[in-house]
Design goal:
Largest sheet: 9 strands, mixed
Radius of gyration: 29 Å
Helix content: 40-55%
Number of helices: 15
Shape: elongated
Length: about 475
């Protein structure tokens, strides 16, 4: 990479969270028996006409405004012609030269610096179906097609080729996903196909203005996979150039198990799709008052929320960034604050223990057993001295598993902190008598010796002794 520079642009497809499809009344619900969420319109049967779902346009405008785009006053739909078994009409209704929104941007944080990534356009289109590849019939592989997803409304968000590393691409995706989730137009669940991303990657010698030949990478099912795929593709293209070869413009797929990209087909150009205005859909004139109504209804977005946390709650920019990464996490954090107004302590628990347990179980925070009120109640037990910080972690894990209230868990498991000075003093005396050499070390100025003695008392009391009182008694007696 010392001699080369990567150039990366991303195309992100987002399914909009409408109740019905973009041009018909069929449901957009995820799942269902194959080919049951369909009708003559989304199946492209003869004699049917599409009718535009107004909510799709509203959501697309909402997303475009959140991404700092200019909303077009005049826009239209086009037919993108190609054959694939999951495309029943043999064309996709999309937008070509007059998209709904253009010229936006996202600011990302990279190594303490802010970098602006341009957004070329946001346009609407319909989704295709899904192919399910099966084993074989008489040793011949075959595929099944499920058209339930056909006609589900999408927006495609196309970035400028402004990213220069896999880390920047990942930061852009994280920020984009957060913004879209905050607007409420999509749940962005990659596991359900609500958010999908293709990456265009090229490399060029450092200092050269012209872009290199790009390859498009498809079939990445996670942000982690995208980061790995982009990193691999950059190395692959550099190797090709270093060996005197020529990078071919093509579409490649990411093979997760092998950790490599592989060629799928040559990359299509716009003229290959024979775009032309869809004759069944009239152009759209977007009312400016409607656009401003939508703008006024936008919620506080992640960047604005982060700034408020730093300004009003005194959090560090890093903590505020982590807590606002998803709307659900930020909402949970703020709900906790209503009952326990200490942002730093709550933030530490949400980013620490709660995040650890959620990640280990691959659980969304919205499905967490611990309510914000329960977390606040546990912190209050710590403040009252009922439980220690060490015991709190045990209580927290039990809350996470069972959903029980912290006070109930403390009573059932006998975890109440020992704050009786007489009971602790007897253990302190025993530990001091058993460790005369450590006592001498402490009196000789070795402060670390105190930590060992505290640990012995806590071990003897099974972590229930009040640690502040243990420290005080040990110091007094020595």
């Amino acid at each position: 990479m010392a001699d080369y520079e990567a150039v990366i642009g991303l195309e992100v497809h987002v399914e909009l969270k409408t109740n019905t499809k973009i041009f018909c009344h069929s449901t957009t619900a995820f799942g269902g028996e194959p080919n049951t969420h369909v009708c003559p319109v989304c199946l492209g049967l003869p004699g049917v006409l599409p009718v535009l779902n107004k909510r799709v346009v509203e959501y697309a405008i909402r997303a475009g405004l959140a991404l700092n785009c200019q909303i077009a006053g005049f826009s239209k739909f086009d037919r993108k012609n190609y054959y694939y078994p999951d495309l029943p009409k043999n064309y996709q209704i999309s937008q070509y030269d007059l998209p709904l929104a253009e010229h936006g941007f996202i600011d990302i944080d990279i190594e303490g610096q802010t970098k602006r990534i341009g957004i070329t356009r946001v346009h609407m289109e319909e989704d295709a179906g899904k192919l399910v590849h099966q084993g074989s019939i008489s040793t011949t592989p075959y595929s099944l097609v499920d058209y339930n997803r056909t006609g589900v409304p999408l927006i495609e968000i196309v970035s400028e080729p402004d990213m220069r590393s896999p880390e920047e691409a990942r930061a852009y995706l994280d920020k984009l996903k957060a913004i879209i989730q905050y607007t409420g137009v999509s749940d962005c669940k990659m596991e359900e196909g609500s958010l999908r991303c293709d990456a265009n990657v090229s490399v060029r010698p450092r200092g050269r203005a012209e872009f290199g030949t790009r390859a498009e990478i498809k079939n990445m099912n996670s942000f982690r996979a995208l980061q790995k795929a982009v990193a691999y593709e950059i190395e692959r293209q550099i190797d090709v150039l270093e060996e005197g070869g020529r990078v071919v413009q093509e579409t490649r797929t990411w093979e997760e198990n092998k950790g490599i990209t592989m060629s799928m087909r040559s990359k299509e150009e716009a003229h290959d799709y024979r775009y032309f205005p869809d004759p069944d859909l009239v152009p759209m004139i977007i009312d400016r008052d409607w656009v401003e109504e939508i703008r006024a209804s936008l919620p506080e977005l992640p960047g604005q929320r982060k700034e408020r946390y730093v300004r009003e709650l005194g959090l560090s920019p890093y903590d505020a960034e982590v807590l606002t990464t998803t709307k659900e996490t930020a909402d949970y954090f703020e709900e906790c604050l209503k009952s326990y107004p200490n942002a730093k302590i709550i933030g530490n628990w949400v980013m620490g223990e709660l995040s650890r347990l959620l990640n280990a179980g691959n659980i969304e925070i919205s499905l967490c057993n611990i309510t914000p009120g329960q977390l606040a109640d546990m912190l209050k037990l710590m403040d009252k001295g009922t439980i220690s910080g060490k015991i709190a972690k045990t209580v927290f894990e039990e809350m996470f598993d069972s959903g029980k209230d912290p006070e109930q868990i403390v009573k059932e498991k006998g975890l109440m902190q020992i704050s009786d000075e007489g009971a602790i003093a007897s253990e302190v005396d025993r530990v001091l008598a058993d460790n005369p050499k450590v006592v001498e070390d402490y009196r000789a100025g070795k402060e670390k010796a105190l930590g060992f003695l505290v640990g012995q008392v806590m071990k003897a009391t099974r972590g229930k002794a009040n640690p502040d009182l243990v420290n005080k008694l040990l110091r007094d007696k020595m």
